[in-house]
């Protein structure tokens, strides 16, 4: 393994080809990562945090690209629920993404960006790369793996495929497979990107990026992260601070302006092709199918691993019913599991926002 110090992000280059579920392999894979807190001498205090679809390795501190706090700053740090005075926290950018790990924008064998020649990846491929990172760091067993949303998918995949590598699994606001509705929302976003003339079949790295399509994709997805009650409380039908009678196609309503801001700001930090690949990986994810059709069989080797699953009552993207299905599968193999549904007004994004009850659950489980 080679640790890249000349790259804009902290990365490790894997010294072996990475096998993928598609049957293809990737050579020279770079995995970008960050660490927080000191690793104990016996390496027993490491926690691996998996990020969600549009997240990255900057879970805490100041994000070097946006200048904003890390995406889970309120959860990770000294004296926080995941206390970096006690634990060594690792967070890696998933392969297929665009924050330093190998993805569609990376150079292929011919030196040009892979673009749509990048191989199809799965959630298990993302985790496989992070297991290789752990090997490179000399960490054989983790104190815990933690993730919300797509990060929760990775945590479950880790438990299903590498159960001996962690003592605890904390999966928040996630699912064992996407519903048809989940896939449909992602397809709307993908079609918005591919309909942008600047997408150019994915070959846009030497020209204008398909920012308009990517912004629309982000807008559509962001709606699924919120609850109706939360949107109503925050925006209602309030108009912008201008003449309410000047009807047209400007952002008349505050909620329109909010979504447009979310979409436009997203294009400054994310790659459209990465969005295509990662959403497809999430849609392919099906732990039961990987285990021959029975979800319980996916966790057959995880009987000694402790699990904690958390859902939110306003999350209609990954519902409490979705998470109960995982709990039932774990019960079927006698894996020790605790489950809690928390009340929060924020919808799916509740795991990222100020929900004190979640802090208590995380702190109690991580121990």
Secondary-structure topology with pairs:
Elements: E1 2-4, E2 11-13, E3 18-19, E4 25-26, E5 30-36, E6 46-50, E7 76-77, E8 82-83, E9 88-92, H1 123-137, E10 144-148, H2 150-161, E11 168-172, H3 180-195, H4 211-225, H5 228-234, H6 254-266, H7 272-284, H8 287-290, H9 295-298, E12 306-312, H10 320-332, E13 337-342, H11 356-366
Parallel strand pairs: 6-9, 6-10, 7-8, 10-11, 11-12, 12-13
Antiparallel strand pairs: 1-2, 2-5, 3-4, 5-9
Helix pairs in contact: 1-2, 3-4, 3-7, 4-6
Catalytic activity: L-homoserine + acetyl-CoA = O-acetyl-L-homoserine + CoA
Active site: 149 (nucleophile), 315, 348
Protein name: Homoserine O-acetyltransferase
Concise summary:
The protein contains eleven helices and 13 strands. With 367 residues, it is an alpha/beta fold.
Q: What does the main sheet amount to? A: 9 strands, mixed
User: What's the CATH H-level homologous superfamily of the largest domain?
Assistant: Alpha/Beta hydrolase fold, catalytic domain
Structural class: alpha/beta
Our estimate of the beta-strand percent is 5-15%
The overall strand count is 13
Number of helices: 11
Cα-atom radius of gyration? 20 Å
Give the overall shape, derived from the CA principal axes.
globular
Strand order of the largest sheet: 1-2-5-9-6-10-11-12-13
> What is the CATH T-level topology of the largest domain?
Rossmann fold
N to C succession of SSEs:
EEEEEEEEEHEHEHHHHHHHEHEH
Distance between the termini: 32 Å
What proportion of the residues is helical, as a percent range? 25-40%
Mean residue pLDDT: 94
Domains (count): 2
The residue ranges in which pLDDT falls below 50 over 5 or more consecutive positions are none
**CATH hierarchy, class of the largest domain:** Alpha Beta
> What is the CATH-assigned architecture of the largest domain?
3-Layer(aba) Sandwich
